[in-house]
Each structure stands twice: as C-alpha cells, then as structure tokens.
Amino acid sequence: MRKNTNFQGGRMNKNLKSLVLTLFFIAFFTAPLLAQETPIDNTKASLYKLALIIGGAIIALTVSAGAYCQAKSISSACEGISRNPGGAPTIRFILIFGLVLIETLVIYALLITIIILMVQVGSIHLENAISKIKLSL
Predict the structure, then answer these.
(1) Do 111 and 61 sit in the same domain of this protein?
(2) Nearest alpha carbon to residue 48 among 111, 120, 123
(3) CATH classification at residue 98
(4) How does pLDDT run across 43-93, given as a tens digit for each residue?
(5) pLDDT above 90 covers what percent of the chain?
(6) How far from chain centre, in Å, is Cα 108?
(7) Residues 13, 75: one domain?
(8) Angle at which helices 42-83 and 88-136 cross, to 10°
(9) pLDDT over 70 percentage in the chain
(10) CB atoms within 10 A of CB 109
(11) DSSP per-residue letters across 78-135
(12) pLDDT for the residue numbered 129
C-alpha cells in the first residue's frame, strides 16, 4: 500500500507555504484601509476607480503586446540563425537590441500607469489637507 506523501515535504507543502505567504502579504498591505478616517465622496471615488481601470488596461495591453512581440522576435531569430549560421552574431545582436527596446516600452507603460494612479491619489490627499487647513482657520 502506498503512503500519501503530499504533506511530507512534497509539492503540497510548497503550495501551502506560498498560499500562506500570499495571504499574509495581502492582509499586511490592506491593513491601512481599516484605519481610514473619512470616506471619500462618490465623485472622487468614481474618478479613482476609473484611474485604476485605465491603469490596469494600459499595463495589460502593453504587457501582452510586449510578450507577443518578444516571442515573435525570438522565433524569427532562431529561424534566421538556423538558415544562416554564419550570421548568428549579427542576428543575436539585433535580437537582444530589439528585446531591450520592447522591454523598455513595457517599463514606460508601467511608469505611466504609476503616474496616473499617484496623481489621482495625490489629488485626493491634497484636497483633504486643504479642507482641514480651511477648517482650522
């Protein structure tokens, strides 16, 4: 009779560790939401939700396009090297240069997404700070 080794240092143990670690980080990073003082009014909340959706769409589209372009360029480079082994150094250089440019595009999209989100968050906090200053005067 065979023993079930899933819980004795096998794959289940690794999956369980990663699940517990993921849940810990989710709880750790969402804890400041419980300390929120005043709720955001509906117009600001809808703008913030729209910014999240736009930021997610930007990064999703650029990552998927970048992954497709990287796969296509690697495939074409392998075909070129297999047809002409003498041109391998040139093809390899052009491939690496192209992959760097594609990855740079994805990083720029990530920066644009972060800027969109930070401007929305910053404007909400700035308006809250201004209203508190006005109340104190």
Answers:
(1) yes
(2) 120
(3) 1.20.20.10
(4) 666 777 787 788 788 888 888 998 898 999 999 999 999 999 999 999 999
(5) 20
(6) 12
(7) no
(8) 170
(9) 69
(10) 19
(11) HHHHHH-GGGHHHHHHHHHHHHHHHHHHHHHHHHHHHHHHHHHHHHHHHHHHHHHHHH
(12) 65
User: Given pLDDT bands bounded at 50, 70 and 90, which one contains residue 96?
Assistant: very high
Q: Are 48 and 40 contacting, i.e. CB atoms less than 8 angstroms apart? A: yes
Helix/strand/coil percentages in the chain, nearest 5: 85, 0, 15
Same domain for 57 and 105?
A: yes
Same domain membership, residue 74 and residue 31 = no
Q: What Cα–Cα distance (Å) separates residue 71 from each residue in 16, 78, 95, 99?
A: 32, 11, 11, 10
pLDDT of 8 over the 80 cut: no
Tell me the residue range of the domain where 23 lies: 1-36
Q: How far apart are CA 119 and CA 97, in angstroms?
A: 33
Q: Are residues 51 and 112 in the same domain?
A: yes
Instruction: Report pLDDT for 46.
Output: 75
Does 70 share its domain with 3?
no
Residue whose pair of structure tokens reads 């080794």 in the numeric block: 5
Amino acid in the structure at residue 87: G
